[in-house]
Amino acid sequence: MAKYHWQSQNVKQSGVDDMVLLSKITEDAIVENLKKRYMDDYIFTYIGPVLISVNPFKQMPYFTDREIELYQGAAQYENPPHVYALTDNMYRNMLIDGENQCVIISGESGAGKTVAAKYIMGYISKVSGGGAKVQHVKDIILQSNPLLEAFGNAKTVRNNNSSRFGKYFEIQFSRGGEPDGGKISNFLLEKSRVVSQNENERNFHIYYQLIEGTNSNQKECLGIMTPDYYYYLNQSGTYKVDGTNDNKDFQETMEAMQVIGIPADTQIQVLNIVAGILHLGNVSFIEAGNYAKVESTDLLAFPAYLMGIDPNRLQDKLTSRKMDSKWGGKSESITVTLNQEQANYTRDALAKALYARLFDYLVESINKAIQKPHEEFSVGVLDIYGFEIFQRNGFEQFCINFVNEKLQQIFIELTLKAEQEEYVQEGIKWTPIEYFNNKIVCDLIENKVNPTGIMSVLDDVCATMHAKGEGADSTLLQKMQATVGMHEHFNSWNSGFIIHHYAGKVSYDVNGFCERNRDVLFPDLIELMQSSEYRFICSLFPENLNTDKKGRPTTASTKIKKQANDLVNTLMKCTPHYIRCIKPNETKRPRDWEESRVKHQVEYLGLRENIRVRRAGFAYRRVFSKFLMRYAILTAETWPYWRGPEQQGVLHLLRSVNMDNDQYQMGRTKVFVKNPESLFLLEEMRDRKFDTFARIIQKCWRRFIARKKYEQMREEASDILHNAKERRKNSINRNFVGDYLGLEQRPELRQFLAKRERVDFATSVDKLDRRFKSIKRDLILTPKAIYLIGREKVKKGAEKGQIKEVLKRKMEFGSISSVSLSTRQDDFFVLHEFQYDSLLESTFKTEFLSLLCKRYEETTKRKLAISFSDRIEFRVKKEGWGGGGSRLVVFQRGQGDLALLKPSGKTLTITVGDGLPKSSKPSRKNAPQSHVGGGRNVNMRAHQNGAAKFSRAPAHQPTEVTYTTPHRPPSAILPKLNSQRAPRAPVQNQFNQRNMDFLNVPDQGMSGQQRKRSITQRPLPAPKPRPTPMGPRCRALYQYTGQDTDEISFDVNDIIDLIKEGVRMNPEAGLEMSSSAHSPSLFFIPLQTPRVGGRAASVGGKVCSRETMWRKSELSWTLSARKSIILPQFLLKDPPPPTHTHTYLSHGFHNKPSSIMDVVFASKATDI
């Protein structure tokens, strides 16, 4: 049965799942296919292994556990495109190849990259196993998302939840595929957002969560006011975001800090810093004689209080700073008073430094919680804010777009350039594909020399120009024009420059570039924060200010360039996977499609070139050794290892699966497979091999477990009766089967159970009623209740007179009070229930009691009361006005193993001989592997009210039973039995005979009975039987369809066996019948008959109707005079092997429209 899926075959298909299959490879065709799928809510599309994702701007229904189960372990082509398919492929490749994997998620801001990253981490967390420690790592991985989003995401014009930092999350795995560690690398935090935002944007989410989510006590301690109170929040005038609940998100952020392991007192300090930054932003300055002065000193108190510093020192450090000067080998410190602009810059620098270091602390806390000392395997997820083009693009956009250029270069290197170069190196036939290589743009930005790049020019200006503001920025622009002004991807304008990025032209405003590139925190501010009374705040500023500073300080562009190159090196060491995210509109509304915007993204992402390379290239390549290691199990020659050249071994494997020659090429060191379907063929055959071996191992293991389980069950069942009841020698070592009725083939019994109700035990029992009359019942035990099923004759209705199954009683476990048994070796037991009791007899009472005790304890949480007594009183069901009351069963010692029943009024006396001692236990050694036969087991006993009970025929060979009697009393010594059986005496009373073979339990279950062999020597095979003599047969020349219920139908060339031959004349026509023995050859009988009603005639020995054309000579065979038909000549002396042979005596045939001659022969077997 096919699994249901959101895009299964019974759902309308939209476009093509894999754009490699597009008939036209143009940007317009790509955009049209994406639009068609997007409008039908299919946001994922493939280009080979590359996943294209279009942001739907709404929650889609296919991210549930059902989809996780559907994609787990499935090949890419088996299900519709999905981020789960890419993640599962990445995870399995890591385990199979033992190589680190990474996924690079690229696209512009608002295209859905962060959401895709969260789904990837969620899927891995679901499908990977592990215990408590692994679950703790999973929790931290998942909880890191809300924490980092709160401190690192913000609302921008283009995205309500834009990542304002880069994140590379490595999930580390053990060799078994369990996530046991992780590591986060963060870069490019947009610190400038802390102090200023553009119109219609917000600061980082944590500020608004703090204002909305804190309780009244927290608000008072932190001095929380409304958002418009704070300068760092009121610049843009935007405080709310549609679809965002800041109060709820704050609770999730605090819970995340708790899961990660941040102490409670540190959590308070984190909130103090966040609130302290808000209050610090409200400190403003006025100009007083070219010097800055704090406008309102009252505003200094609260930020100083929250950060544990002195308000006066804070005021001093915001309005002045120390400068070190050297003169004549002497150094001295000079205090310089700052102007208003410089004071504002110092305040903002302190706020940005506090926030950036706090963010680094949170990332480091996550790493400490999950990072392990050594790495085995890892899956990396790169989530970085996408390419940005705003009305005003500053230093942050320059850095962001540079990193995106580097990521695009990786994509080009590994999917376009490297692939084509590999084909040339391996000698593979290949048609080159042209593409744009953006390395020239990366060199324009990051080159150090020949020619000097923009970042190097920027660093040089920052090192040589000490002034701030317009002077340094204008100098930067002039130097760039002189250095890279002639570059084909660079242009300048009056206040900035333009770079031709892979995603389009971006104009950058040079104002503020130098200031933000310096990224220097004055030593005065570091010293100020190190004086805090809070150790946590001091730990955020670990610099040693006493050491002499040598060399230039590291600039922001240098840090970013190093981080970007380190990231590229890390990614290049992994096997990369790609998700290309597309933003369909700027309105952020679902089902809104802007054609030109999507087409532009399709162009700069290089999707058309990607499709062309994919169609012309090979889907899979592996070095010979790894290919052999992977698929060696497919043939005996390559398993466990191949003796010979690796290339020949690979060829042998490919030919063994009959792969077409045009589906693969052999390189110098690698094999290249063209289509994924060919690879899937290899994988499927490999899975089948492993499946076969796994089934063998599972079968052996299950047999072992089942044997242990049944031995344990037998021991537990024996413990119930141990030292309380005598045992029967033929059942003490019996294996437990459970279902002795074969309920899987008994729907008439299953109808009384719930649809999926499991059956623990089922057998046929004897129930004794109030008069001690035995009645057959089917006893069924399930985890829910006990069922007693009988049979009654239907008294009315359409099924009147039929015997139907009837549910006589259903006992819930909670209604059962106890079970009573005797101390003798009989098979009787009483189920005591609140309403009335049931006296039952079953050979399998021990197995039933064992299972009943387990289910009873599971349901009621208490043990079942079991009593042993030779006088058992039980209550009977009240019927009508009378009845009810109780009955007594008395057990007495007798002779033999046969139970004798003697009812007397309300008392039943049961006499039975001594059994095995009460201390007997099952023996595991030499225990017979016996099960119960397929028929019902009917106990043998004599009933002394005159009626004898029916019994099966006994087995003639007794089963040898081994048992142990650890503490046998002297009186319990069993008589020694003669090994030879005495001659069988005439049976006078079958209940008094001493042959107890009928008590032997069959060796097999429902599948049939197996007895001990009576023949010990192997007889000689009998001679070959004589072949059955073959009578005459005939072949039909024409097809005939029977016109009545007793007529045969046959086709042309059907072979028919003849039972008797002869000719009968039609009595109505005055003709008589003649017959002959089987004739080996054809014979012809001339007939002269008158026309009957003008419908049939005989001409020259031929009888026919007007509508039928027969051959010239006719032949008729007769067996019965009831029906007749005219047959044409088709008797063959030696007919060829028949296609259908029909042999048995049956009805004759009737010719239409009149009967002239009778033909009787064998009908088809299928007609009976």
Layout of helices and strands, plus pairs?
Layout: H1 27-39, E1 44-47, E2 50-54, H2 65-71, H3 83-97, E3 101-106, H4 113-127, H5 132-152, E4 153-154, E5 162-163, E6 166-173, E7 179-187, H6 205-213, H7 216-222, H8 231-234, H9 246-260, H10 264-281, E8 285-288, E9 291-294, H11 301-307, H12 311-319, E10 320-327, E11 330-337, H13 340-370, E12 377-383, H14 395-426, H15 439-446, H16 454-464, H17 470-484, E13 490-493, E14 496-501, E15 504-509, H18 513-518, H19 523-530, H20 535-539, H21 556-572, E16 575-582, H22 595-604, H23 607-616, E17 620-623, H24 624-631, H25 646-656, E18 664-666, E19 670-673, H26 676-721, H27 747-750, E20 761-768, E21 774-781, E22 785-793, E23 803-812, E24 816-821, E25 828-833, E26 838-841, H28 845-860, E27 865-868, E28 871-875, E29 878-879, E30 882-883, E31 886-893, E32 899-904, E33 907-912, E34 921-922, E35 941-943, E36 963-964, E37 1033-1035, E38 1055-1057, E39 1061-1063, E40 1074-1076, E41 1096-1099, E42 1102-1105, E43 1141-1142
Parallel strand pairs: 2-16, 3-12, 3-16, 24-27, 31-33, 32-35, 38-43
Antiparallel strand pairs: 1-2, 4-5, 6-7, 6-12, 8-9, 10-11, 13-14, 14-15, 17-19, 18-19, 20-21, 20-26, 21-22, 22-23, 24-25, 25-26, 28-31, 29-30, 32-33, 34-36, 37-38, 39-40, 41-42
Helix pairs in contact: 1-22, 3-4, 4-5, 5-9, 5-13, 6-9, 10-11, 10-13, 14-15, 14-21, 16-17, 24-25, 26-28
GO cellular component, one term: myosin complex
Keywords: Actin-binding, ATP-binding, Calmodulin-binding, Motor protein, Myosin, Nucleotide-binding, SH3 domain
Family: Belongs to the TRAFAC class myosin-kinesin ATPase superfamily. Myosin family.
